[in-house]
Design a protein that fits this description.
five-stranded mixed β-sheet; Glutaredoxin; alpha/beta; Rossmann fold; 15 helices; Ubiquitin-like (UB roll)
Length: about 500
Amino acid sequence: MITDEGATARSVVVRVAADVAAGDGDIVAEAARNAADSVPVVETGPTGIAGVEPLVLATVTGRTAFYPAPDRATVRELVDVMEAGDLPTADAAAVVGHEEGASSLPVPDDGALSVGRRAVLGPCGWVDPLAPGAHEFVAAEDDAGAAAELGLLGRGRGDAVADHPVTEAWDLARETDGDPVVVVNANEADHRPRADRTLLAGAPLTVLDGAAAVARYVGATDVVLHLNESDATLVQHVREAVARVDLPVDPRVVAGADEHRAGAPTAALEVLEGAERIEPRLQPPTPAEHGLYGRPTVVHTPRTVAQVRHALRAPAAFAPEATDPGTRLVTVTGDVAAPATVELGTDATLGTVREAVTVDGRFKLATVGGVFGGVTGDLDLPPGAPALDAAGLGTDGVVELLTEGTCVVAEAGERARFAAEANSGRCVPGREGTQQLAELLRDIYQGSFRSDDIRELARVMRRTSNCQTGAHAPRPVTTAMDEFEAEFRAHADGRCPSGICEENL
């Protein structure tokens, strides 16, 4: 990656957008650099739309041509045209006009990149993620107080105040005796959620900027970023970002265990403290009262602190009367050609995400909210937490589109088995309830569909579990039963309507 921090502000520049771990992005960038004498080439990180990457963005004087996944010969031809001072447009997927020096990816009129907004996602795929000079930082004297007044909610399962006002934790941390600390929790072992990873790969400096603003508000002088140890390339990328930026806080990057349970907010604190057993803490006290090494601790995801930064830079974009102010980042995955992470405003519907991907088959159902998300056939609802929660769906920013080749009973069973294996064992509903849930689903294949027992077990687990796994594990099962009870009964009668469970019947 080049070190010229002003390169992306030049009137002529080639950007190569790809995931930081994608070798194909490196190959395309190297081909462009080898062909260029005077045109700067910058690797910008992912756009969020995996299906168009590596994406070459050729910019000449306020116009950008988009070339998804070009071969080396095409790259050389593009650079040759730019060396002559012209914009290559032949065979471009799109050509977009924009202001010179734009700080956000210009949006084509159609295609996957046109879906939703690009506010928090704006720098991703456009700005050099490791060049502080290419970013517009929140003023050093500003803290997150203005964001607190907007009613911003925490985002993602790794956030200690997920779907609750962030000020609940901020004010408590400020008032509690001790030295506060901010933890940015991005440890996610599941492949489904990609929003936090996209932000850290494409705009790590904006995440650090938002975290620093929160730290100033609560009086913290250090920030800990908690990533997954299996993603070594991203860990190194974020460490390099930390090394390059000068902030009034001391950021530290820690690579934690590659386990689902390690991503839960209080379990993450156990990981950071070096505990041998990874399990969530009993609450109260909350992390804001007694968190990392007993210090008042604010635990947010990258999605949350990125929203904080956006609120400070563009407060007018946040409707104060909204029940979930700001935007929501949603990753659409499942039976799709390539996953995509898009940004939706409160005026959008969740079904908008389907426009960002190509579904491999005929749509049957969606699971909303990650591995323990809710099953639905209707995505015509807002993307905010209140609407999703009211619909019995998950709020972790994932929509899995599944096709007619999916057996809903097998899908529910797999998620129940995962819960039985991945829970921490700390509480009875998480330890025993998940086992019982998995057993009740296995019984269906033996001819026993005990619907009332499943629903009663789910009710008890939701109300009494200390951990997220125990509380949320029943959701895929009960919502699947709501939508597809006939398929559950068919399996108990020895028939799989999808035709893929015959060996188990």
